[in-house]
Amino acid sequence: IDISVQISPKIPIWPETTPPEIRVMKNVEKDGVNVSSISMDLHTGTHIDSPLHFVKNGKTIEQLNLEALIGPCLVINLEGEQLITKEIIKCKIGNRVVNKLLFKTDNSKLWTRTDQFYKDYVGLSECAAKWVVEKGIDLVGIDYLSIQAFKQPDKVHITLLENEVIIL
After folding, report:
1. Could you tell me which residues come within 8 angstroms of residue 151 by beta carbon, excluding any fewer than 6 positions away?
2. Which residues are catalytic?
3. How does pLDDT run along the chain (168 residues), one tens digit per residue?
4. The whole model's pTM is what?
């Protein structure tokens, strides 16, 4: 199941970054072939954070075990929650063994409203990030541009990425 959001010039983007530019370079009627180009920030839409994003000398995307992106995962519906805490995750998972977690939050609605970036999106707490690492979960995904809330310190990213938890 592909959970990617569609890239367009009107997609919400992180503050102070450039929106995607999609340009037709050739068209079949005039040139005999359709050719387009795209220019965008690497953190546009659905993306992976590599450890190098926050960790000095961290791994780049091509150095990660991308098999962690494939396979069964648990999607936790957290609509109505403002912050994803360890307690909430533990309650939703119960006794199940989970390697991959996707969080479905109210953030999903932010993609379709406008191209405006919303700073009050739902993120993962620092304690929840530590718990994810302790449980050996190798992938966490959230339905907006960052795994941590906008006003949180970078410790959520650092905790996950230093331990090679893939952030989607």
Report:
1. 119
2. 53
3. 778 899 989 899 999 999 999 999 999 999 999 999 999 998 899 999 999 999 999 999 999 988 888 899 999 999 999 999 999 999 999 999 999 999 999 999 998 877 789 999 999 999 999 999 999 999 999 999 999 999 888 999 999 999 999 999
4. 0.89
